[in-house]
Amino acid sequence: MFTAAVLSNPPLYQLHNADLSLEKLAEEYDRLAREEAQRWDEINRNGDIGYADVFERIADRHRDRIAVIEVSSNQSYTLTELDRAADRIAHWVHAHFDADRIGMNQVGMYDKNDFGFLAAVSGLAKAGRSAVLFNQREPPCGVARLAGRYGIDRILGNPVPGILSQEIPPLLKRDWSGRVPRTWRRSVDREGPVAIIFTSGTSGVEKPALFSHRRMIGAGLAWSLRTDMGDQDRCYITLPLCHGNALAVAFSSCLMVGASAVIRERFSVRDFLPDIRRFRCTTMIYVGELWRYLLAGSSD
């Protein structure tokens, strides 16, 4: 467990590897690197190429484990439920979006942090499409501008002016038509993008950044191993899922070990510790800004 006992109720285990010498720590990291290579070897032996292949195999292995918990609704979803939700979206996308049309291998997403967002990313991967992730905090006119600049004319999620949009909740209510065939993603290779995100634009115009299948799988393997995550862990995710730390690192780590992702729409200083205790979270992915907010609001 990679957490401090003071944040939990009841207390958790001691910080993993905290007492190792530098020499022993180097040995431990060598061991983890070997284990990571073994995981890749297993993926290759299974014939899994892309993120969706790995996702489906893990869903089959951990069927009834809780995959996602929504803080806002207090709803929980198993890996089987997430897998089938992704299938529903993949079937709809395959039926409505012509993959042979230029640009139709990339579908925009503009939605909040929730189960539907994760189902949509996974569903697009199952259908052999890349998810272009627009920040939900960007106004619709800003999303329309970015979509136009990069040739995105289909969006899953909230409506965007001038763009053909499909909200996600109705797709999740459709009948399950079975698991989608792998042939729908036969053109996928590991170096191609699962997701395309946009930088914040703090140093100029927002720029797209590609998260390949290799990177999405590898980030989950690397982080889960090095933080000693297991299938009993719960990872608190408040960072936007449209960015790399939340999706490629936090959620992928949960997926790789069958842990639960506790999803909150946005970070709250006041609700941080109550959420951690209420949902018994044991780990989280952070950026430095979160700690600054916590320290600034410590008097609360």
UniProtKB/TrEMBL annotation:
It comes from the Bacteria. One of its GO terms (molecular function) is long-chain fatty acid transmembrane transporter activity. InterPro entries: AMP-dep_synth/lig_dom, ANL_N_sf. Pfam families: AMP-binding. The keyword ATP-binding applies. Keywords: ATP-binding, Ligase, Nucleotide-binding. This is AMP-binding enzyme. The lineage of its organism: Bacteria, Pseudomonadati, Pseudomonadota, Gammaproteobacteria, Candidatus Kentrum.
